[in-house]
Amino acid sequence: MKSKLPIYVGAPIVIIVVIVSVALTLFCLLRRKTPGLMKNSVKPQNETRNDGDTSLGLETRRFTYNEIERITNNLQQVLGKGGFGYVYDGFLEDGTQVAVKIRSESSNQGDKEFLAEVQILTRIHHKNLVSLIGFCKDGVHMALVYEFMSEGTLQDHIVGGDRNARCLTWRQRLKIAVESAYIGLEYLHKGCNPPLIHRDVKATNILLNTRLEAKIADFGLSKAFNRDNESQVSTNVIIGTRGYMDPEYQTTGRPTTKSDVYSFGVVLLVLVTGKPPTMHNPRSIGIIEWVQQRLSKGNIEGVVDLRMHGDHDINSIWKAADIALKCTAHASARRPNMTNVVLQLQECLKLEEDHAGGNSNNNFYTGISSNDLSMRNDSYPTNQSTNVSQSSTSFEKEHNFGRVPTMDNGPAAR
């Protein structure tokens, strides 16, 4: 028995030493990893990719400010300006063109919004959400490096002053609306876990590539919420863009997915009319009221953007305007969800494509039946959602414009 005592005592000691050694080795290896790369292990299982779209990689590069200056050729060419700061044209070492958003000293968005956007975009990857290539947090300098979107913002093509921007056809506008609603916002609301409220949906935050494919941008104000308790989301500061903000959110301080629906409804009206969300002619008037006034008289042609030269299916226009006004109902409970909006927009697109194929008639769309707005709860499968770990960031009048004139032979709303 005495001869076996050292074995009984020594064996556990050896095992403990081995375990500690292995643990220390692994710890050292992990610490030696390059600090400039943040690995993202979360990826949506239902992610779709286009061949050649290499911007959806799961590595996010960290740049120094000297690198940012080199990439932008010392901040030479300005692409645009937003609440965060100026956006500059840039090129990476391999020649890849990028857009670099640099925080300005006058920006009211601070570290919290900046880190929120980095955190979100390193965890969600979708071909219709703008891709983050890297970021810079170097002392007081903060910058975000995005994939370059050659056609700029939707605003540039609709109500912007860019004379070089091509005028979009109604079919192109509808496709942009469907992509923004379906693959962009509905994905944030239902495909992420926890879901995300964008909180700043507007025409300048919808970017277009060379194929005029839409991508949702600017997640600095986004907020995560509990899918089972969405009404409990609250903010200390009401933040958004004038003309696009949900009036219910402004009153209660509680943003919901229906806040994004409201803002998207305004975007849809901008697409239909070619007008900004707020006009001064001569008094200040919002686009919602402006459209209501004309539709109350059945004047659909007085609403449509004249730059489309009448090349559109009038039924499709009626339907899109009706969807937009339902989205912008003052009470959020009366608004459809994004799934329902997508279904209605797809019908608008089908009407327009039939028109382009010579199959359209001259009847008028007469409105959507009450059954169409039964608030469907279609959702992404719960086991195919993107995990997003995000902390809170800082941050109508009723449609009494009357019934749309009823036409005897108009297409039945489905």
UniProtKB/TrEMBL annotation:
Residues 375-414 are annotated as: Disordered. It is found in: Membrane. Gene3D superfamilies: Phosphorylase Kinase, domain 1, Transferase(Phosphotransferase) domain 1. It is a single-pass membrane protein. Residues 73-349 form the Protein kinase domain. InterPro entries: Kinase-like_dom_sf, Prot_kinase_dom, Protein_kinase_ATP_BS, Ser/Thr_kinase_AS. Residues 382-394 have a biased composition (Low complexity). ATP binds at K101. The chain crosses the membrane at residues 6-30. Keywords: ATP-binding, Kinase, Membrane, Nucleotide-binding, Phosphoprotein, Receptor, Serine/threonine-protein kinase, Transferase, Transmembrane, Transmembrane helix. Belongs to the protein kinase superfamily. This is Protein kinase domain-containing protein. It comes from Triticum turgidum subsp. durum.
